[in-house]
Amino acid sequence: MSPTASQFEEAQLTDPWVALEPGADPAEHARMLRRAHETFTEKGTVPWPVRSVVAESWRRSRRAGVGPDGTASVDLTDGDLGTYRAEHPLARVMPLFRELMGTFAADGEHLLAVCDAQGRLLWVEGHATTRRAAGLMNFVPGARWAETAMGTNAPGTAVAVDRPVQVFAAEHFTRRVQPWTCAAAPVHDPRTGRVLGAVDITGGNGLAHPHSLGFVQAVARAAESQLALLAPEWPAADTIELTVLGRDEAHLVTGGHAIRLSRRHSEILVLLARHPEGLTGDELLCALYEDESVTPVTLRAELARLRRVLGPGLLDSRPYRLTVPVECDVAVVERRLETGAVTAAATAYAGPLLPGSQAPAVVRLRHRLADGLRTALIARRDPDLLADWAHSPWGEDDLDVWRALSVVRPTAAVRARLAALESELAAPGDWTRSGARRGS
């Protein structure tokens, strides 16, 4: 039956992040969603009344090769899980989560769950009977519930889209999860703004209410405030923290102040961080500008502006160099790769280095870092790590990674995407799918 005009108008007025409007019949809505889910799995089309956020998630799930009858894999167990949890930043706010949500979860026969930024469950606590039932679908600590592994679900989708989200009944992509309802909100590092993971409440249809979504969002904000209070002091004046991965404008922390730099200043800081011994004006000119007509006067003016932004005493000249140590997220990824900690390196890699930069030296460094990580991922042959890269904005056209993924996870969706990429690569005059775009 097609929706009436009034139904369509009403749907347009609702909050797309809320699963069920007050007054709606949960049983009837669940039946419509089951029919819609079957239509999607059989025909690939998303009928009304599926919300746009869910429809987009279903499509991402299918592209990731997730099947509707899949089961979550458990990545971490026993000592490995305990070590990973103890070192994770969200461990510091678990007492807060339990204080704010523990009684609500236990009394309502719900579960409190916390996942990391890769959708891996770290803690699952709450009502004992509900916990046992959730265990039958591997909703347990150490299990991977990312969208790329389990399809649409609140914790996995919340970290995927970086938004609080509610998932009701058959909105879940995997059938065995469809009797459940959950709401989750991402938790961010208060200093860098990066997603650390998500806090989730999971249970029955009673959670399909706007209040549960607002509740987890408020808990996530409280956790971020607590993390800000628990965070170590800002770096002293003799230290700079530089964040440049996955962003066009660097985030700089120095002397207790956070600064967002312009793109050119970001490029200069990256290069000076790579060369603590300093760079001459001519070296910086060659590293920053493709246009050989750019004069030293232009560069000196840019450096004078940067010196005012940084404050006194941080930028020296003859040669140009930073006078204090720099901790850069690029170096973190490089160190982890050098020690063979591939999973940790992939976790720290938030995206390409200053992706909009065309500075020759920055472009070279961006490709070297991305190629080093992707090579390590291909060698590791971990299907989840490969899937995370392949379904990222920087990896969606990476032919080598898709080929590696097709070996360790040969689903129909993965094979179809690989075939499409190989067809595009074979097209006359099409060279853009080669390494020229990988990790760019």
UniProtKB/TrEMBL annotation:
Transmembrane segments: none annotated. Gene3D superfamilies: 3.30.450.40, Winged helix-like DNA-binding domain superfamily/Winged helix DNA-binding domain. Residues 256-322 form the OmpR/PhoB-type domain. Keywords: DNA-binding, Transcription, Transcription regulation. It holds the Pfam family GAF. It comes from the Bacteria. This is OmpR/PhoB-type domain-containing protein. It comes from Streptomyces pseudovenezuelae.
